[in-house]
Amino acid sequence: MKYLIVGLGNIGPEYADNRHNIGFMIVDELAKQEGVKFSMSRHAYHTEFSHRGRNIHLIKPTTFMNLSGKALAHWMRELKVPVENVLVLVDDLAIPFGSVKIKPKGSAAGHNGLKHIEQSLGHNNYARLRFGVSDNFPKGRQVDYVLSGFDGDELPYLPELIDRSIAMIKSFCTIGVELTMTKFNNLKVDQ
C-alpha cells in the first residue's frame, strides 16, 4: 500500500521557519526520525520509507505554495496513489496554536495552497492535517503573519506538536482518517 504525504510550504531559506512552512517542518522531522533524506525530483523534494507494511512517500513541493496542486497531481499519477491515501499537511489560521486536527475533506478556507490542490484535483475530497497557527494578526496583515516565524512563547511547544503530527500521519497510514480523528483531534498542548 502506497501513501503520499504532502507537506505544504515555500522553498528558500527566507521561508524556512515561518508558520506557512509547518508542512515542510513536519515532513523534515519525519524523514529525520526515519533516517531518510530528501532528493530533488520533479516538482518536489521526495523521499520514502516503510512503516508497518506501508510504503510512505513524503514530498515537499518546489512549486511554491500557490501552485501546490501541480506537485500533488504529478506525484499521485507518478506513484499511482489513490486520493484516499493522500494526506496534505497545512497551517490553519482557524485553529488555535496547540491544536492539530485531521479531517477527510473540507473547504480551502482561503488557503491558497489548498485552493490550488482543489483546482488541480477537481474536488476537495482529500484528507488534510490542519496545524493550528492561530489568527493573532491585525486586520489586513494575514500574509505577513503566516510568513513570519512562530512566537517565542510558541517555540518550546513546536517539537511536541510536530511529534504529534507525525504520530497522526502514521496513524492515518495504518488505521485511516476516521479512527485517527477520534484518537487525536481533541488533544491540546498545555501552555
What does this structure look like?
With 191 residues, this protein is of the alpha/beta class. It has 6 helices and 7 strands. It has helices spanning 22-34, 68-79, 112-121, 142-146, 158-175, 177-184; strands at residues 2-7, 39-41, 44-51, 54-61, 86-92, 100-103, 127-132. It has a 7-stranded mixed sheet, sandwiched between helices. β3 (44-51) and β4 form a beta hairpin.
List how many beta strands DSSP finds. Answer: 7
Query: Looking across the biggest beta sheet, what order are the strands in?
Result: 2-3-4-1-5-7-6
Binned, the helix content reads 25-40%
> Which class best fits the helix and strand makeup?
alpha/beta
